[in-house]
Every structure is written in structure tokens, then in C-alpha cells.
Amino acid sequence: MVMEEGCQTPRSPEAKVGMQVEDLWDIQEPQLSPTEKLNACFENIPVSDFPPAPSNQVIEIKSDATLAEAVKLLSQHKILGAPVVDVDAPEDASWIDRYIGIVEFAGIVVWILHQTVIFLFFMLFLSRCSKQFHTLQSEKMEGTAAFDFDSLITGAENILSPALAAAVNGVSSPRFRSMHPESPTATCGNFFETLTSSDLYKNTTVRDISGSFRWAPFLALQKSNSFLTMLLLLSKYKMKSVPVVDLGEYKIANIITQSAVIHMLEECAGLHWFESWGSKKLFELGLPLMKPNNVIQVAEDEPVLQAFKLMRQNGVGGIPVVESGGRRAIGNISIRDIQFLLIAPEIYRDYRSITAKNFLTSVRKYQGEHEKNSLFLSDMVTCRRNNSLKEVIMKLDSKKIHRIYVVDDMGNLEGVITLRDIISKLVHEPRGYFGDFFDGVLPLPANSRV
């Protein structure tokens, strides 16, 4: 029930939003389908009515903060990403000039790994060229002017950007030379411990990696935009969170996350519009959308970096870990878990290879020692096809997660359901709805009609 017993006041701000939808639902044209009704309802509610995020989740990171400082800040506030403020922007700058993007755990790790490989190959190339050149010089006739190749190497380091220079100084030693992210050495127990102690990690600033941010420069909603716009950005357009800007204050007024939307839906249980949709079984709604053979997954004995690589390549926020040679799911790794490669690299020291399975084992132990009441990674949240959508939403909200795995009676993986799938059954994108909203901001999905 949304109402407390004997009281006509919503039990939460989220429930108040649900009651707005209920009031609008009752006045919609009877010939409209449930989805068309909900589209109209959410289109008439501004995002300014969405409850504000907890203050500890609305943080900003200064552009001159180091990657190490950014990781620490994100970890302390238990968030995946935060907007970056340009410290050189004037005080009266508009919001679009004030922010340079959103930096995330995943972006930091991917950038570090890519730069490490580039720098190591670059330095190895120069080193080999120098050796060959000195050999040739020794064969020249006495009195012939010599070319100082060592000066060329020094000069190359001097003209590199601050980020490149930090990497050359910090990760050009022999101990790094075999640490390609896809090699066995890159998944050994001391790889990330060595990496997080390097100058590359300590000296590179958030501003230095701004070109790798997903949004350029920033994708945000205004307070007057609708709930429907917000829901479509989170679902079809795969945003993890949606900033809402205050044009008058030139700053972010709220950040709407996937978890917040799941909680809003959970708080709407009992309302007519919600029950007409949420009481249906998953199989009745055509969920899960993806066939078992198409579910992206990683075997327990594969390197954990393969899991994060698959997430990036396929644009997904998490993948299941399955038994080698089978389909039985034993755990889940999500994009948020990438933080443990940076904030606790010492827990893998005793491993010759950081596989998906021992990643789960190590992080479970770490969380048990440092984070009480936390959801262990290996505690995979599952459901069955005959569960109702309401039951799924309740589970997602109680565990504060974004995806749930559908399994059969034997625990074999049958599919995955995310918030995006849920929203796709709640609302749809009208033809031409976004117009030129995305022009120059981000690539559109292949099946977009806008």
C-alpha cells in the first residue's frame, strides 16, 4: 500500500510521484492502451518533481584532481561517477561551460590500461631503436660526427603531455614491459597493485583524460523536461544516470540514477496503474528479452579483465560468471565492481592470475571485513520466468542493484532483466519525440527513429 494506515499522505516522496501518475491515469482516454496512457502521464510530470538524490551522492570532482583522488572520492560516496567541474571556468559560466563531462570508475581503468600499453610499446620501440643505432654508430669511421639518440629519447619525453610524461617516468621500467592488459601477466596478482603505485596513476589529473569521457561535453536535462524523457534516456539511450541542471544557478540540481527510478517504482506498488502492469508474469511480458545463448557471460576460469572488456565492447553494465563448460551461474560482476581493482589491489597479491572466480572470492572476503551489510558479489540475485514484474522490482530495490538473472530450477542461466528492459515494458518512444535533442551530443542507437 502506498498510503499509511489511517493516513492520506504518501509514505515517501517517490510515492507522491506515483500518485501524480495515478491521478493522470484516471483521466486518460479509455481507448488508449496502458502503455499509451503511461506515456501521456509521464510526459505531463516534470523531472523537477523527482525527489532529490541524497546529498552524499550529488558530488562534483574538480578537473585538477588526480585519478587517485577521483577514485577515492567515488569510492567513499559509493557512486559510479560524478560530474567534473572545470576549475578554470569563470564564476559566471553557464552550466555547459562549467562542466567538462562525467568521470566514472570504468573510464579511469580503461584509460589507464590503454595508456600503459601505448607508453610501454613507445618506450620499447625507442629503446630498441637506440640500441640498433648505437651499434651502427660503433661501426662508423673515427672522426665522423655521432648522432645522440639518447637525446632524442629525452626530447620525446619532454614534448609529451603531462599525462604521457608521468607514464614514461612511472611505468617504463622493465617490470611493466610484459603487462599488456590482455596478457597473462596483466591478470597476475600484483599488476594492479603496481599500477596504482605508479606516477601515471598518482600524477595524471581528471582533466588529462577528459577526451575519454562518454558524453561530450555533457548531456543533462532541464527541470522542465519530462519524466518520459528521463525514462527513455535511462532505457533506450543507455545512460547510467541523468543530471538535471538548474539554468538559474548554472549548476546541477539533481542526479537521477537507475537505483532511484527502481525505488520510485517499488514505492508505487498498490496503485492501480502500477498493478495493471506490475502484476503480470515475466513470460507474459515477453521477458527476458534475450535468448540464453545470446547472454554475454564469462567463465569462472577466464581473466577478470575479460569480463570488463566484454562489458565495454557490448555496452552492458554487468555480466554473469558461469561454471566452466556449463550454464550454471555462480556469480555476477558489474561495472561498479571495477573499483576493487583500484581501491584494494593488494587483495590479489597471492594470485598468479586474477580469474573471474577468484575475483569474486577476494572481493567477497574484502567486503566482509570492511563493509558490513553489503551485498556480496557472489550472492547472485535470481528469479524465475513465472515471477511477477512487481516481485522483480522488489528484489532489485531491496538489493540496490540494476539487474536480475533468470534461471531454471537447476540454476542454469535463461536470461537477464535490467531496468532498461522494465522501462521498455512501461513506456515507448513516440516517433520523432527527441527531434534534434541529441545533435552533436552522442551517437544514436542503430534502431533509433529520431
Task: List the defining traits of the structure above.
450 residues; alpha/beta; CBS-domain; 3-stranded mixed beta sheet; 17 helices; disordered C terminus
Task: Give a topology summary.
Layout: H1 13-26, H2 34-43, E1 61-62, H3 67-77, E2 81-85, H4 95-98, E3 99-104, H5 105-138, H6 149-159, H7 162-171, H8 191-195, H9 199-203, E4 221-222, H10 227-234, E5 241-246, E6 251-257, H11 258-267, H12 272-278, E7 298-299, H13 304-314, E8 318-322, E9 329-334, H14 340-343, H15 356-370, E10 382-383, H16 389-399, E11 403-407, E12 413-418, H17 419-424
Parallel strand pairs: 1-2, 4-5, 7-8, 10-11
Antiparallel strand pairs: 2-3, 5-6, 8-9, 11-12
Helix pairs in contact: 1-2, 1-11, 5-7, 11-16
Shape: globular
| β-strand amount | 5-15%
How would you characterize the largest beta sheet? 3 strands, mixed
Catalogue the unreliable spans: 1-8, 141-181, 442-450
CATH class category of the largest domain: Alpha Beta
Instruction: Characterize the quaternary organization of these chains.
Output: single chain
CATH architecture of the largest domain: Roll
Q: How many alpha or pi helices?
A: 17
Structural class: alpha/beta
CATH topology of the largest domain: CBS-domain
In CATH, what is the homologous superfamily of the largest domain?
A: CBS-domain
